[in-house]
Amino acid sequence: MLPTKAYAAPAANVPLAPFNFERREVGPHDVLIDIHFCGVCHSDLHQVRDEWGGSIFPMVPGHEIVGRVSSVGAQVQNFKVGDLAGVGCMVDSCRTCSSCQDGLEQYCETTGMVGTYNGREIGSGAPTYGGYSSRIVVDEKYTLKVSDKLELARVAPLLCAGITTYSPLRQWQVGPGHRVGVMGLGGLGHMAVKLAAAMGAEVTVLSTSPNKEADAKELGAHKFVVTKDKEQLKSVSNYFDFILNTVSAPLDLAAYLNLLRRDGTMILLGVPPEAPQVHAFNLIGKRRRIAGSLIGGIAETQEMLDFCAEHNIVSDIELINIADINEAYERMLKGDVKYRFVIDLATLG
Ligand code: NAP
Ligand code: ZN
Ligand code: ZN
């Protein structure tokens, strides 16, 4: 077994603290990655606070992992020692159901995808531990290639925030001529702005934070709407083809659905603890749609990383020491992060 240093939440609503555990030995198809950086996703916070129910403790969060391969199993074909590598939100799935066969492992229909943390390994049932740790063992099939053209710390958030916004933009073939609204300028939101703009859409940020306007424009947004300002909101009524909703807190969807034009689609990405209420009248009058999307498959995650390398797209980050993780959570809750915290695992000691 491989001794591993980490930070873990011992129980729901208890601060994260240093934690030691053992990773499995490197199997024939596994790679061992020394983790250099790990992004901090709002899903980490939802899960360490058990806001979705069923959390497994102790929990080592983290599913925006980048680092360098330090060992490979005998059968590994696509990675060698010294390669940069990334791991996102899943580390396994059944591999045989129609979703897995289609490269949509996140929608695995038998075992479900195995989360990088707060999941259980298929077979052994052992809990999975994430990227707030010194190293990780992952089957090469669930490991991504990372370009050395981009700044590594700023690549980490692409593994969740990047793919979660890239996948729906591709699924709905967003491009020139489309008006896209991005609700919430946080980790997911700022990646949605960069990616949708790179794909040629007109992008509007719909934010509760007036002080984010200059940043939004810098990130590539064409317009900025303060959603608490009724007049500003009215100026974009019946306007959008698509709205990517990345908001992490409960909110009244009606006002936002009215921003969709006829046949417009709101794609739910954020997962607030409580379910939203929707009145049929907000949909039927303009044949509007509400959809949802969960991260992206492994092949599409690789496509997104390659797209970002080609277009020089990375995350805007605040690099933190792992000892500051609890404070970072408090700041993220207030929407006070520009625009993703990334943990420097060298600070794990
Ligand atoms: P984040 O960085 O905290 O960003 C969320 C943003 O939502 C905030 O910056 C804020 O933007 C806005 N917001 C927060 N509270 C609000 C409120 N009460 N009313 C209106 N707006 C509010 O979080 P994130 O990491 O981007 O994650 C966002 C959500 O997506 C989380 O629920 C997370 O679990 C979920 N998620 C889903 C997937 C998926 O596969 N579908 C993947 C990853 C994450 P403004 O200041 O601009 O208003
Ligand atoms: Zn995430
Ligand atoms: Zn499957």
UniProtKB/TrEMBL annotation:
Listed PROSITE patterns:
ADH_ZINC
Tell me the cofactors it needs.
Zn(2+)
Coiled coil residues, start to end? none
Q: Does the keyword Metal-binding apply?
A: yes
Q: Which SUPFAM superfamilies match?
A: GroES-like, NAD(P)-binding Rossmann-fold domains
CDD domains, alphabetized = CAD1 (cd05283)
Gene Ontology molecular function, alphabetical: alcohol dehydrogenase (NADP+) activity; zinc ion binding
UniProtKB keywords: Metal-binding, Oxidoreductase, Zinc
**Pfam families noted in UniProt:** ADH_N, ADH_zinc_N
Q: Is-annotated flag, keyword Translocase?
A: no
Q: Residue limits of the Enoyl reductase (ER) domain?
A: 9-343
Q: Which domain of life is it from?
A: Bacteria
Query: Could you say which protein family the record assigns here?
Result: Belongs to the zinc-containing alcohol dehydrogenase family.
Q: What name goes with this protein?
A: NAD(P)-dependent alcohol dehydrogenase
**UniProt source species:** Hymenobacter montanus
